[in-house]
Amino acid sequence: MVSTSFHRVIAFAQFEFSRFLFSKRGLVAIISYLAIWALILTNVVAKGAAFFKNPQFERFITQILGEVGLENLSNWPVPELIVFWLVSVLTFPFFAMFSSADQLCGDKARGTIRFLLLRAKREDLLLGRFLGQVLVVSSFILLALIASNILIVWNDSTQLAAALNLSSGIFIDLVFVVLPMIAFMLLLNVYSTSSKQAIVHCLLLLTLGSIIIGLLADYVWQGLELLSYLLPNANLFNTLSLSASKAEQYLLPVAQTVAYGALTFTLFKKQGV
Amino acid sequence: MIELKNVSKHFASNKVLVDVSMTIPSGEPVAIIGPNGAGKTTLFSLISGFISPSSGEVLFDGKVIPHSEQFGKLAVLPQDAQLDPRFTIEKQLAFFSKLQGFSKSEGITEVSRVLGLVGLLEHKTKKPQELSHGMRKRACIAQSLIGSPSFVLLDEATAGLDPVHAKEVRELIASLSKDITFILSSHDLAELERLCQRVFVFEAGSLKQYSGDGDTTSQAYLTLRLKQHLDNLDNVIADLNGLRNLKVTQSREYLIEYDASVTDFDIQLLQCLHHQSIAYQQIYNGKTLENQLFD
């Protein structure tokens, strides 16, 4: 019998994946997700793309995107993916929030976590659960992208190569968008007693936190704006408009994820279960 | 071996355990007894590594808990812990065995073995909420038997079980105690009496006394339970050689202290009762756990 931290982390990640996908809650989430994305693809993406493709509106669209700081997107050759990107960047962090709302708190409330910690280190459990959720959310991103590509090819098969090329980049960028949110939810799980409480805490921190930081930056000292980096997806609009630097787009989410993870481990280690 | 060195635990200003030092080598089952609030569950949580001591050290096989070498060797039935209601007990126990390093096929065999030990094999495909309280408890006991643990801590193992299944669990503990050191906590003192030779008595967060193998004191005890209460039993047995003291512990029950060097004291007592036509119900060699606890 071999049981190393690596084996245990992988086991936790696999079980987290099946815990979500093959439970009743997971099935409801999948069905809801498919229904919502079917609506988004058929109504928002398809109709939005048709609007983008209309030569009469092309200049108008470019102007509009420029007005709201999204002019970089007008260079993308597949209009469906422009709409997909706009919708995804804004919705997947919330999807990740809901999906990863119960990484620890349910098990803690039930006492199930004790059975696990008799067989694994706390860091094994945390890392495994986090990776499992990354796997879950990434799978949903991939599913939405595949459905979008099917829609694109259905409308115009000549766009397949361009769509696939763009989709791989979108997939990676979206994974970086959701990473800090999943880690942030893990952190909130340390002190939350239920997934609903974790979601409420998250929404309060994101809204009130942003407002307070904005007020502090306006009325106390401009430099306090940097505090916004304490919250996940602080640079979401820059990512959305493709104007984020590489560091902002990739290093910041990784740094936030690592920081939330380290804080989670420190707090969870001190906490009794 | 489990060792506690000057362990204290407090939650805010509430001192739950105070300067506890004890050693539990492997061997016969061990009972941890004490009234509510004595610190038994906190002690179990400390040994399991669920909480950290405020001061002092808890060691398992010479290393401070928690450490990865205890995984699979130190098993626990935590009080009030429940399995995940979303998955079958087979799937959950298979996952626990996977964490302990079993391969998939080995895990399935192992899960069948431990579920068979607690009589739940035919219910393995059920989810916890489909089982009765007693069956859920037995499933939790089964998880503690996965692999080859050297120590198993059972906190209130038979609480909520019907007499038949409580007896089965006791028989299971007795049958496995050659290979596994069980540490039991229960409010059922009669149950602990049947199973445990070694007893730690806790009171108000402190270790009050230990009795167990190797006890060599000059006094010995018999606990006598009569069918009818007798006010003058002290006069009836006054002439027995070696008698030191007699105390009425409750109606019809007497604690008799005698000189340990008088080896036939129990025979004398039985003969005396026979001659006086006094019907007895039970003679217990030593102090009952109840008397140890409330003495």
Describe the protein.
Chain A has 273 residues and is an all-alpha fold. Chain A has helices at 5-21, 24-53, 55-67, 79-99, 105-110, 112-117, 122-155, 160-191, 195-219, 236-240, 246-270. In chain A, helix 2 packs antiparallel against helix 4, helix 2 (24-53) packs parallel to helix 7 (122-155) and helix 8 packs across helix 9 (195-219). The longest helix of chain A is centred in the middle third of the chain and has 34 residues, at 122-155. Chain A starts with a helix and ends with a helix. Chain B is α/β, with parallel strands linked by helices. Chain B folds into 2 domains: 2-211, P-loop containing nucleotide triphosphate hydrolases (Rossmann fold); 219-294, Alpha-Beta Plaits. In chain B, the strands form 3 sheets. In chain B, strands 6-7-8-3-9-10 form a 6-stranded mixed sheet, sandwiched between helices. In chain B, helix 2 (89-99) crosses helix 3 (104-117) and helix 3 crosses helix 4. The radius of gyration of chain B is 22 Å and the shape is globular. The two termini of chain B are 29 Å apart. At the A-B interface, helix 1 and helix 6 of A face strand 6 and helix 2 of B.
